[in-house]
Amino acid sequence: MSDQEATAPKPVGPQPRGSIGTPVGNTLAIARREFVSYFSSPLGYIVIGMFLLLVGFLFFIPFAFLTLGKATLQPMFNSISWLLPLISPAIAMRTFAEESRTGTLEMLITQPVRDWEVILGKYLGAMGLLAVCILGTFSYPVIISRVGELDWGPVAGGYLGLLLGGAAYVSFGVMVSSFTKDQITAFFVSFIVGAVFFLMNKALIFFGGAASVIEYLCPDYHFSNIARGVLDARNIIYFCSVIFVCLLATARSLGSRRWS
Fold it and tell me: Which residue did the predictor score with more confidence, 24 or 101?
């Protein structure tokens, strides 16, 4: 064998999926890319600004914490729980729909990374923006604690409930986004379905014997329990199950695109 043949580069075939980087590294890299992309356009700033503005309006304008006669954040948590079905679809609508519209999704899912790394990365990136929105309200308990003695147990439970509830709504939004190429369609479908599930426990009288089942399916029922400081495993399991099912359906959607 000649020296030229010995030093010639060997042809490189197609690399198997998941062959580049570690699963955690790939997932975090995609999550970082997704999170940063929110702030490369006005979307991230608009979502955060509108969220904080609405929370401030719903909480401080009625002065609910004063009319209750004690330092409490329950009105704020109730206000945010009403906003989650609206703000979460706005965050999640672009995760896959925009990639599908621009044609970059096909490029992404054919890269040597696994589908679940792409899904978790995009999901975590969207959750990063929601976490920024929620953490932006932390100035409120600080202010209220100066008005009176604030019980920080329910405060911690309320924030945990918001993160879990928001995570469930975002996972549903990611799933819907994976089935369409239009962000507006993804937003309205996620918002309408999320709002229906949110409001179901407000009309239990119309469901008769099925009221207990309908109540369990309602995210706000589980959020309300956690926000009161009651850490029941059933509530945690509910939110984790919704997230798992929605992300699994997203994986099925990406799998069908690969073979279509």
Answer: 24
